[in-house]
Structure formats: C-alpha cells, structure tokens
Write a structure and sequence with these properties.
CATH topology of one domain: 2-enoyl-CoA Hydratase, Chain A, domain 1
Largest sheet: 7 strands, mixed
Shape: elongated
Number of helices: 13
Order of helices and strands: HEHEHEHEEEEHHHHHEHEHHH
Radius of gyration: 28 Å
Number of strands: 9
Structural class: alpha/beta
Strand content: 5-15%
Length: about 350
C-alpha cells in the first residue's frame, strides 16, 4: 500500500520541476567522452519533455569535447537558441559545490546560472598529461605563463643592465645597448632552450579549441570578455570563482531554492566519485507524465495485471506491458529509470 505522505525527495524533485517548468537532470562526476553518447541517447529517448531543463552539475572537469556535446544536446533538445520566444526554452545550470574546467565550459551554454553559497566555478584550464609521469597532469597555462614571465624578466634585465652601463661605465648609448643585449641573451638563452616549441604549439591548439567551443556555446547570459578571462586571466587550475565573482562573468546568477539544495545534497552525496567507484551518475530525476504514480484502490493494488490489461486480453505475445504501446524506451533508459526508482524506494 502506498504511503499517505509523499517521499520528501520525490516531493522536492516534483516541486523544483514545477517551479522552473523544467526537466531535472543530475550529472555527478567527471565529464568524459564515454558519457556524452549515453547522455544524448537519454535526452533523445525522453518522450515527454518539459519546456525547460535544469541540470545539477558537480564535476572536477573532464573532456572539453564531451562538455561541448552535452551542452549542445541540451540547447537543441530544449530549443534554447530558437528565434521564436514562445518556443524558446531555458537551460538552467545549478552548481551546488564545484564545477571546474570542462564544467565551466559547459556552463557557458546555460541561459541561467544558479549557485549555492559554497559553489565554485574554475578557469577553463586545459590539463595535459605529464610526459615523464604516469597519470599526472599539469596546467596547459604553464607554458604560456612561462613565456610571459621570461619575456618580462628579459626586458627587465636588459633595462637594468643598460642603465648601469650607460650611467656608471660612461659608455655610449649604442655600445651600452649592444652590451646589455648580449648579456641578457647569454643569461636567458639556456632557459629558453629548455622549452619545447611543439609542446607549446600543442597547448595553444587546445586553448584555441576551448575558446572556439566557448564562443559557439555562449548565450546572452555570458558577459562580454568572459571567455577570455576564463581562458587566461586566472593563475591556477584550482582558482576559486565564487558566486560573487561569477556575477561579473554571467548576467544572471541566482541563489537556489531550499528544495533544489536538498536534491543536490542527496544525489551528490550518494554518487560522488570515489577511488573504488569512478563512474559518473547521469540521469533524469523527475518522472515523465505517464510515469507519475497515482493513488489506486486496494483492489487495483492487489491486481496490477488487471490494471495494465483491464479487458484481460493481454498483449499479442502474452506479456503484460505498461502503456498503450508497450514501449518503455531503450534498454539504457529503462535501466536508468529502474536505478532511479530503486534509489527513491531506498530513501523512503
């Protein structure tokens, strides 16, 4: 028998879905190319969509290619870039804890950003594998920042030597300049010689890819100059961009409702990746209209087969099926639904 009181988690999900007139999706984990295909299939198999979509995103980053495909999928499925305002939906992104690197790139495709008090974005910082280490990465900004630092140091060294030679050694301007240049080159040449131009070119290519993706995803919610700031203005991959600073980068940044925070706490806490379990959790949280449970009589609860086939005829193959067509969607989608229902029943 169904409980008279609705499960708090399910009630919160339905409340948020109604409040924003949006389907609610949770994405918890690294954004990988292995997930983007299943994400696209999941959205495609969703037969009854609301006008808008709200994604709860918790990620340390991942693949820029996958982030672009996920954001593009939501923009297309929910018509966030169509010209007709009456048909245009919203892509709402909620950041509860952290949304770094590729996650920040994905956020550029949203039309509304919601952040909790403790939420943080991060720079769009390309992470490259260290050639001499297994599994370790380094910031793609490092070679660019090294070049900028060395250029500043070379200029400073030249000017300091030139002034010293000109004022104290009583050399001519031409001779002082030539000697200062020669000394500066002698000091900086061994350092520049350690840089790999091919590696630097590779880094610039990845930065260019992120920039192009950002420009294609960008919506009216992205302030002017935001992409350039996210690509090159922050000193480290871990740099914290909190809600106040995010308001300088995005035009609309709101605070979450209590129900939205509650939902995020539950799913992020349950599915946060660990050393033993690295798989990402990606799924719709709100049910499609035909899936929403309704109150039934005791007789109907005692005989579910009769509810599915009131005439007693059954399906052509003798199996009872749900819905008028008996089609429950693709196998991955059915597994996702079963997994979500099991989690909700466990929460009850």
């Amino acid at each position: 028998m169904m409980s008279e009181e609705k499960n708090p988690l399910r009630a919160a999900i339905e409340s948020v879905a109604d409040h924003y007139d949006a389907d609610v999706i949770a994405y918890v984990g690294v954004i990988t190319s292995a997930d983007d295909e299943s994400f696209i299939r999941m959205c495609r198999d969703r037969e009854q969509k609301r006008k808008n979509v709200l994604m709860i995103l918790s990620t340390p980053g991942g693949s820029a290619d996958a982030a672009y495909r996920v954001a593009r999928c939501l923009q297309r499925c929910y018509n966030t870039k169509v010209e007709d305002p009456s048909k245009r939906g919203q892509f709402i992104l909620y950041v509860h804890d952290f949304c770094k690197s590729a996650g920040t790139l994905l956020s550029l495709g949203s039309t509304l950003l919601i952040m909790s008090q403790s939420a943080q974005l991060g720079p769009i910082d390309v992470q490259l594998l260290k050639e001499e280490e297994v599994g370790e990465r380094r910031s793609g900004l490092a070679p660019r920042q090294a070049l900028e630092t060395m250029a500043v140091q070379a200029g400073s060294s030249f000017h300091r030597l030139f002034r010293h030679l000109r004022s104290r050694s009583q050399l001519s301007t031409k001779m002082a300049a030539e000697l200062a240049a020669s000394l500066t080159v002698g000091v900086m040449e061994p350092i520049y010689g350690q840089l790999d131009p091919i590696r630097i070119g590779e880094v610039e290519r990845f930065v260019r890819i992120a920039q192009e993706y950002g420009e294609r995803l960008s919506t009216a919610n992205v302030s002017r100059g935001t992409i350039e700031r996210l690509l090159s203005s922050y000193p480290s991959h871990e740099f914290v961009i909190d809600r106040d600073e995010a308001r300088e980068l995005f035009n609309q940044v709101e605070i979450p409702t209590d129900e939205l925070e509650f939902i995020a706490q539950v799913f992020i806490g349950t599915h946060h990746p660990t050393a033993e379990k690295m798989d990402s959790f990606v799924n719709y949280l709100n049910l499609e209209p035909e899936e929403i449970p309704v109150e039934t009589s005791h007789a109907e609860q005692d005989n579910p087969a009769e509810r599915a086939d009131p005439e007693g005829e059954g399906s052509p193959d003798g199996q009872v099926r749900s819905g008028p067509s008996g089609d429950e969607g693709s196998e991955p989608h059915r597994k996702g639904r079963r997994r979500l229902m099991e989690e909700r029943q466990a929460a009850e």
